[in-house]
Amino acid sequence: MTEEAQTRAARVVVADDQTVVREGIVMLLGLLPGIEVVGSAGDGEEAVKLVAELAPDVVLMDLRMPRCDGVEATRRIREEHPGTQVVVLTTFADDESLFPALRAGARGYLTKDAGGDEIVRAVHSVLSGDAGLSPSIQRRLLERLSEPEPRPAPPAEPPDGLTAREIEVLVLIAEGLNNTQIGRRLHVSTATVKTHINNIFTKAGLKDRAQAVRYAYAKGIARPPAG
Fold this sequence. Notes:
DNA-binding, transcription, Response regulator transcription factor, phosphoprotein, transcription regulation
């Protein structure tokens, strides 16, 4: 945060579709040091419009709103007005709303039972380039990131009449293994591997290994390498 930003109050817009809640948040923020409420919005569309008009430092953004929800409004604000940060302020501390909001560009996430000090910290944290996440949200985010990436589920029914063993061979082809390596992995002879590959090509109408790899990706049998 620049020296100028440190010496003036953070200019904030509040977006919440519930009038009583919105007015209560505005009243609370008016009592907090270092924060100036410059506008309030009843839905995401209005929030985006106010950001364009007022260029606030931060939007406190509810997620569940009509016309344009908080996730979409966050995405538009961050794309169109990158100088404005977004702190999500919501009743719903669940992964279904948390992670889409963070992916859309929100830098902070607080539940509506957050105290005034916590809100002030979150606002000034995002203005300083840090993440304004409550401790509970930080823990859940770390837990989510530490979860192993789910492997693609195998097709409910193998395509083109492929057998389970032929699917295994096709996966190993997609991983780049040659016939000898596939044989070692599956503990079968190279001749048996060749037979399986010939059966795969015949059933799926394939001409070569490159087509087999593309087929495996298209059918969800194997996942393309990242990057």
